[in-house]
Write a structure and sequence with these properties.
The protein has 88 residues and is mainly alpha-helical. It has helices spanning 8-21, 28-45, 53-75. The chain is built from three helices and no strands. The longest helix has 23 residues, at 53-75. The chain has a domain at 8-60. The chain is 62% helix and 0% strand. The protein is flat.
Length: 88
Amino acid sequence: MSGIQLSDALIDDLKKAIQLHDNTAADDMVAVQYMAASVGYFISTLADQRFDKKEVLAQLADFSFQVYEQMEQDKKPKEEAFGVWKPA
């Protein structure tokens, strides 16, 4: 799952695509519900039997949480180092 490129532009495009089908998706909480439901829908339609779909769905939920945690961490101001290091 590495190598994907998330951006504000991508998320905005996804929201616009959803709004083409449902105007209530202008509300971000409605849009995010569509995004979450789409993952479940998509996984359920995969014909590939090489993996456990429920396990993949659980891993994707964990991945979503990791992305969330990283995005929240990136919002925090960076702490500046201070002081003088001296060898012991």
